[in-house]
Amino acid sequence: MRYSRQRDEILNVVLSSCNHPDAKEIYNMVKKKIPNISLGTVYRNLNTLVDEGKIRKVLMKDGNDRFDKTLTNHNHIICECCGKVRDVDLLLNGNEVKEVENQTGFKITDCNFNINGICNDCMKGRNC
Amino acid sequence: MRYSRQRDEILNVVLSSCNHPDAKEIYNMVKKKIPNISLGTVYRNLNTLVDEGKIRKVLMKDGNDRFDKTLTNHNHIICECCGKVRDVDLLLNGNEVKEVENQTGFKITDCNFNINGICNDCMKGRNC
DNA sequence: TCCTAAATAGTAATGATTACTATTTAATTA
DNA sequence: TAATTAAATAGTAATCATTACTATTTAGGA
User: Fold this and answer.
1) Using a CB-CB distance cutoff of 8 angstroms, which residues of chain A are in contact with residue B105?
2) How confident is the model over A11-55, as pLDDT tens digits?
């Protein structure tokens, strides 16, 4: 793995993000530092960084995946109204894992919750 | 909602499926009865049937969604090796829902688990 | 049978992502 | 320090599931 300024800036953008940015948003942020960076470079390096375990990918049901600087085990809740993504401390406990494994004969490797809901702002009509 | 033979056959195919077929597989099955059916018609009617609550959509992380005849609340476990999808009886219980709602300020509308694992066949080297 | 809006077939468009290729560059070696 | 080479990039084309569009067909009521 060779150093590249592009990958370095991409990592910085994700690590300094407060929300869960998607590839295009990351691309636009990095462009401020490296104006001629290619979108393909952003995608390639995001995947590399995920493979290295330096960031995580959040799979969205509309297919527009997002990226996450938080590495501790957690899941996400997504506002159906405004699309906001929030971290959630909720995991399958050991008993639940065993129960599913017994029920299905599968060996669980990982489990992510796609929780859908309405956020407080949208509930109060602030957004949509 | 007007009757159409196309929608009727599409529903039949999903209801008589044992696995969780995707749109292309459904299209190919229906083509045996209605050779000149359009793929767009299959997609449109699958979405209509989902909206009507007659079938369900299973969101896959590769973006190639599948369809499910089972309407009772359940989730899915997916084999990372062969792609097989199996139903799982596992839901958030009331306490977990409340806890997440308190933690996030979101009102949960629905929650689906994307559980990944290795199925028995693949574990025994039968598939991949 | 006639009429009209709903549904279809066939094709084009969309949009996120990946693949491809000539060029650039990190970093090793002489 | 300069030459070398494989890894990484920029820019563009391709992919692939899905949706949009439009002329044509059709269900079902008058």
Assistant:
1) 119-120
2) 999 999 999 999 999 999 999 999 999 999 999 999 999 999 999
Residues B27 and B39: beta-carbon distance below 8 Å: yes
Residue whose CA lies closest to nucleotide C9 C1': B38
Nearest partner of B78 among B112, B26, B126, B119, judged by Cα? B119
- What would be the CATH architecture of the domain defined by A1-71? Orthogonal Bundle (1.10)
Neighbouring CB atoms inside 10 A of A7's CB total 21
pLDDT digits (tens, 9 = 90+) for A67-107: 999 999 999 999 998 889 999 998 899 999 999 999 999 99
Q: What angle do CA A17, A19, A21 make, to 5 degrees?
A: 75
d(CA B126, CA B89): 26
From B105, B113, B115, residue closest to A120, measured CB to CB: B105
Query: Could you tell me where in chain A the CATH 3.30.1490.190 domains are found?
Result: 74-128
Query: Which residue intervals of chain A are DSSP H helices?
Result: 5-15, 23-31, 39-51, 94-104, 120-123
How far apart CA B124 and CA B119 sit, in angstroms, is: 9
DSSP, collapsed to helix, strand or coil, labels residue A9 as helix
Contact A77 B104 (CB under 8 A): yes
Task: State how far the Cα of A14 lies from the Cα of A3, in Å rounded to an integer.
Answer: 17
The whole-model pTM stands at 0.90
CATH 3.40.630.30 fits B74-128, yes or no: no
